[in-house]
Structures are given as structure tokens and as C-alpha cells.
Design brief:
By secondary structure, the protein is an alpha+beta fold. Helices cover 34% and strands 28% of the residues. The chain has 4 helices and 6 strands. The strands form 2 sheets. Strands 3, 4, 5 and 6 form a 4-stranded mixed β-sheet that branches. The chain has a two-stranded antiparallel ribbon with strand order 1-2. A hairpin with a 5-residue loop joins strand 1 and strand 2. It starts with a strand and ends in a 14-residue tail after the last strand.
């Protein structure tokens, strides 16, 4: 799409639509502000962290206990932000994660994979720069331990 303007010599020149929009107040995409809530970044980070092999659960013991109770309440649903805290600024974000890893995995490798997956997902989906992802490993799930979410009694 082009716009016709008169040149000083009396002729006409065509302008691309990007130049035309700049004369009228700038690119439409830059008119206004987009804000992203801490909870949005937290959900993205929580889901991305859970996708990594070796991550058994998110959150510390107390948070997992309350979460397991909440998950059993009708309408409670699983909390994807359990074990996640995000601070969001205008163009940057910082994320803290608390995870439980499976016994036998290399914790440093799992942490690296979680960090990479979280940074990739958050930056791709939000456009924010992730300045840090701090990971606290609060527990190791042993193979003989029962999951905190037992099977329902009624099938």
C-alpha cells in the first residue's frame, strides 16, 4: 500500500505504508503499553520447568503438601505456579524456582536444562529479557517414596 505526496518539483512520489504511518504518530504497534503480570511469567516458567526430564515436582515440602490438598478439592486444580516466583519489570524479569529432582539424575544437568528451557519459553512468549533464573533444589524423590498425590479410591 502506498501514499502519494507532492515533491518540491511538483511531481508525485509514492511512500511505503511504514513511512505514511510515521507521519501520523508512529508505528501502530508502538502506540500504547503492554504489561505482563508476574503470574503470567510464573505460569510460563512453571510449565517450562516441569517439562524437563528429572524434575519430579515444584515447591518445597510444605507448598507441595498444601498443593496436594488443594488439588483434591473440587475446582481447586493443579497450581502451575507452585515453587515459582517471578519479578517482572518493564523489559526484564527474574525468576526463582524451587524444584524436587528424581533420585539418580545429575542435579547440575537438570538445573542447566531447567534454566535453558525456562529462559527460552519466557523470552519467546513475552519478549522480556530473563536476567536470571535461580534454582533451589529442595528435595530428591527416592524411587521407593510414594507420590504426594495417591490414586483416587473411586475409579
Amino acid at each position: 500500500m502506498t501514499d502519494m505526496t507532492t515533491t518540491p518539483e511538483g511531481g508525485h512520489e509514492s511512500l511505503p505504508s511504514t513511512q505514511r504511518s510515521n507521519r501520523r504518530g508512529g508505528d501502530p504497534a508502538s502506540r500504547g503499553r503492554t504489561t505482563i503480570a508476574d503470574g503470567v511469567v510464573g505460569k510460563i516458567a512453571g510449565l517450562a520447568a516441569r517439562d524437563v526430564l528429572g524434575v519430579h515436582a515444584m515447591g518445597g515440602g510444605l507448598a507441595r503438601t498444601f498443593g496436594a490438598v488443594r488439588d483434591r478439592v473440587p475446582g481447586g486444580g493443579k497450581s502451575v505456579t507452585r515453587g515459582v516466583r517471578a519479578e517482572v519489570g518493564e523489559v526484564q524479569t527474574a525468576i526463582d524456582l524451587e524444584i524436587v529432582v528424581d533420585y539418580g539424575v545429575a542435579i547440575a544437568d537438570v538445573a542447566r536444562a531447567v534454566r535453558e528451557n525456562v529462559i527460552s519459553a519466557v523470552e519467546r512468549m513475552t519478549g522480556l529479557e530473563v536476567v536470571e533464573v535461580n534454582i533451589a533444589v529442595s528435595d530428591v524423590r527416592l524411587p521407593e517414596e510414594e507420590d504426594e498425590e495417591p490414586e483416587p479410591r473411586i475409579h
